[in-house]
Write a structure and sequence with these properties.
Length: about 280
């Protein structure tokens, strides 16, 4: 069956027809350049099986690209009822292949939506992008991949290696569970309205096994304490955990004079295991 994308009206017409003035409260910046949305969709890989989950589709620019490139089933999660109505035009053009869900993505169990393999492809609302990623990391085994657009500062934190100013809790928690790859940047001028920052598209692929053994809750406690006072040596910053920090560090084989930004993910995992042994 021929693809109906050439029969769809321009996105600007959709925006005008449905009164889609971007709302700052929802973190909306619409990406209307179909060459860029196709580039993002292609970066997500094979879409022809399972479920492609999109968060914050807005007027449907990326949604169009996903469907045009063969997405078998798209679940588009959107809080803005105006956008749900606009997506109805795509649903009519691609019957049975798109399901628009009005709701808060932070409250939905994405890993239980649709049929596997599941992947998330999204231009995330900037104001909840980190919270969304942390939620998805908690159910990361349910996804094949995540192809996501963040503001560049957040992307730098996800990609950061030990020793740099961008390396922190988000770096450790993401890299512990996933491999992270920078794909490309998108300039401010590509959006309506233009944001104040540059955006970066990254691809996140879950590891078969975490990088090292650790309980997530323990790893979160360790990283929160360590990076919460990142300028202090770990023997001082880890005291807030309520255990003997010197004993904790010795058990993990970490120098007490080290600072959080110098530790590899595996060393944080060693601290998490040592913490569990001390409090058990």
């Amino acid at each position: 069956m021929p693809d109906p994308s050439h029969l769809l009206p321009p996105l600007r017409d959709i925006i005008a027809r449905h009164g889609l003035v971007a709302r700052r409260s929802l973190g909306q910046h619409f990406l209307l350049d179909l060459n860029l949305t196709r580039r993002i969709a292609r970066a997500a890989g094979d879409l022809t099986s399972g479920t492609t989950i999109e968060v914050g589709p807005g007027p449907g620019g990326l949604t169009r690209a996903l469907l045009e490139l063969g997405a078998a089933h798209v679940i588009a999660i959107e809080r803005d009822a105006r956008c749900i109505a606009a997506l109805g035009e795509l649903a009519a053009a691609y019957p049975g292949r798109i399901e628009a869900v009005e709701g808060d993505a932070l409250a939905l169990p994405a890993a239980a939506l649709g049929q596997p393999p599941r992947r998330i492809v999204a231009n995330l609302p900037y104001n909840i992008s980190t919270a969304l990623l942390l939620r998805w990391l908690g159910e990361i085994g349910g996804f094949e991949s995540l192809t996501l657009m963040f503001q560049r500062e957040v992307a730098e934190r996800l990609l950061a290696a030990p020793g740099g100013k961008d390396y922190g809790r988000l770096s450790v928690m993401t890299q512990w569970l996933c491999q992270v790859e920078r794909l490309f940047d998108i300039g401010k001028e590509a959006f309506v309205p233009p944001p104040k920052i540059i955006s970066t598209v990254i691809r996140i692929v879950p590891r078969r096994e975490p990088l090292a053994e650790a309980a997530r809750d323990d790893l979160e406690r360790i990283t929160a304490a360590a990076f919460g006072q990142r300028r202090k040596m770990l023997r001082a910053s880890l005291r807030q955990l309520g255990v003997d920090s010197e004993a904790l560090l010795a058990t993990a084989g970490v120098a007490p004079t080290a600072r959080a930004e110098a530790l590899r993910v595996e060393e944080f995992c060693a601290l998490a295991r040592a913490y569990r042994a001390l409090v058990a």
